[in-house]
Structures are given as structure tokens and as C-alpha cells.
């Protein structure tokens, strides 16, 4: 055996799983096809939103509460600032499913919040235009994460604790058998007891016969400048997610002191082969997000000043899959985070370590079970 465990894909979830496994004294190998913190997948683009009053369903709230503590733990172990909490605004019509999910999360878990509308909204957050049918819900335990630094921090911490990471090493083959798993990467074979696959948007490429459909999808991030940039500093401008007429506009305050992130992440396009991701941003894409910014955030200058393209793995129901791959002994898959997984990464890393070492976790992840009835 070369190690007890191998992790394929040292991106968001892989780096956190390596950290948690190494912390538990497990001998673990990581394989990453590019460098750590690379921008060819779902890591990159300066910030990720952290929210607890959850649009995607209240079943995530316990995981997010735990994730928050683990982000702080990773910060303490590495000395790097990863999570900044200045609150987050969920903006939309309260009758919509996503806004109702936010309210249900708040009510069931008594999350700290404020409901803001009308004149008060205008006074408190003049950066936004709010329509009469809309409300703002301020999630007080929301903020932004620094994705590149977070992944690098977890991977380097894992190495300090004894993990061995093979960079620029693409896994080509996985060969499970009753006593372990053989992995072939860069023409070399490695033998381990258990395997964790965290390959995100690349999952289908590595596992073409996987029954669960995990589509690679393309997301475009865009940044804008502002008439008065001081109004978009983190202390006064929270992260936000806003649903309106076909847009899902999400964004963060200015982090570099010159630009504000505001992106349309609604209905990302399918990517047929992640090796050939189109990283060009079309005029139509830029004009669409520019229109949304002009209408909804009048304090910004609606000419995009920066745009970049990333990918994530999406499932049919937009919830990830976690569990042993049917028909592949000793091999656990954690993938398909569908554009909203970053915030929960450290708790997913913990769950990965538990599933590998104990064969179970006490956390409720039934909505993420790989064996659930996904419609294909
Ligand atoms: C633009 C964008 C914005 C987002 N915004 C948010 C947000 O605000 N908040 C939030 O919570 N979530 C957000 N998400 C979602 C979140 O970033 C992803 O769900 C999460 O990062 C996915 O993690 P992952 O580990 O599954 O994949 P990744 O982080 O992409 O990691 C997969 C890794 O596997 C490697 N790999 C693949 N195949 C192989 C192979 N054969 N051999 C070796 N290595 C391999 C890849 O190179 C990559 O490094 C966003 C995603 C995108 C793309």
C-alpha cells in the first residue's frame, strides 16, 4: 500500500478532506491535475458568498453552522483570514420559493436577521433599487470567503500534518477490487485502501459510466466600478443574492478597493468537455449582466470592467452527491455542488473523513445521498 487513503482532485472539497484526514493521523495522498488553488474549475474569482439563511433549503442550516466554526478553525491553524462576516442581503419577492426557503431557515433555526423594506431599505442600502413587491432579508451570519487562499490554506495545512500531494498529476484510471484501489496517474500506479473522488466539474470525464449525472457548467463572474466606491466597502455593503425576472444577481463588496463583484449566475451553460472550457465572455453575456446592474444597483457604473469564467459540477436537483459509488468498492464520491458548495466545504471535508474512517456520519445528509432518487 502507498497510503491508507487517496483523494483525487485537490480543489475545494478535496483540500478540506485532506486537511481533516491528515488531522486524524491518516496516511493520505492527494492528486491534483493542475496547481493548488487553480482557476480551471470552481476555485477562483476572488470571493465566494457565505450564507446561513439558505435559499437552497433549510436542511443545509446545521451544516452551515458547523462550517462557520470550521472556517474559523482553519483560520486559526493557518493564520490566514478566510471568512469575513459583514452580513448578507437576500433580495426578492417574499412569495418566491427561494425567499420562502430563507424565511423557513430563519424561523426553524432562529437565525439572526432583519427584514428591511420600503423607505428603510432605501435609507440603509441606497446602493440598491428595491421594487414595491420586494423585501431585503439581512442574514447577519453571512459574508464572504477568499476561495483561492482557503483551498491553498487547507492543502498546505494537510501537508504540514503529513499528507502528500501530487501536483500536476492527472488521474487517468481507477481500478477498485475487493482489497483496495489502484490509481493510475501520469503513467504511475498507486495502491491505497480507500479512495475519495472530489473532481467537481471533471467528474464525468474521470467516471464516464457514473449513473448519477454530474454536468459541467460554465459560470461567468463580472466586476463593475462605482460612482462612489466608498459606498461599496465591506463595512457598508453586504454580500447579496437577488432574484428578479430571469436574473440571479449575486455579488460582494469591493475587496481590492477598485471594483465590485456583481454576476448573473442564473442557468449556467453546459460544458461538453471541461478540457475545452470556453473562457471567452460573449457580448450578449456582458450586456445581460450590464442591464441587470443598471436596473438593480444604480450606484454601480454598468460597464463591466472585469470578467472571468469558471466551472462547477451540477446535478439534476442542484444538490450534491455524497456516498460510495455503486459498483466501485472502497470508492466514495463527493461532487455536484451545483454552484453553491464553497461555503460548506470544511464540514464536507469532515463528513468525507468520517465516511472513509467510520463508514458513516451522524450529520443529516439524506438530501445529498448518492442513492437518492435523482431524475435523469
Ligand atoms: C463562478 C462560481 C461562483 C460560485 N459562487 C459560490 C458562492 O458564492 N458560494 C458558494 O458557497 N459556492 C459558490 N460556488 C460553488 C462552489 O465554488 C463549488 O460548488 C465548489 O467549489 C465545488 O468544489 P469541488 O471540490 O466539487 O470542485 P473543485 O473545487 O472544482 O475541485 C475539483 C478539482 O479536481 C481536480 N481534478 C479533476 N479531475 C482530476 C483528475 N482526473 N486528476 C486530478 N485532479 C483532478 C480539478 O483540477 C479541481 O482542482 C461557485 C462556483 C463557481 C464556479
Automatic annotation (TrEMBL):
InterPro entries: FAD-dep_OxRdtase (IPR006076), FAD/NAD-bd_sf (IPR036188), MTOX (IPR045170). Keywords: FAD, Flavoprotein, Oxidoreductase. Transmembrane segments: none annotated. Its cofactor is FAD. Residues 4-355 form the FAD dependent oxidoreductase domain. It holds the Pfam family DAO. This is N-methyltryptophan oxidase.
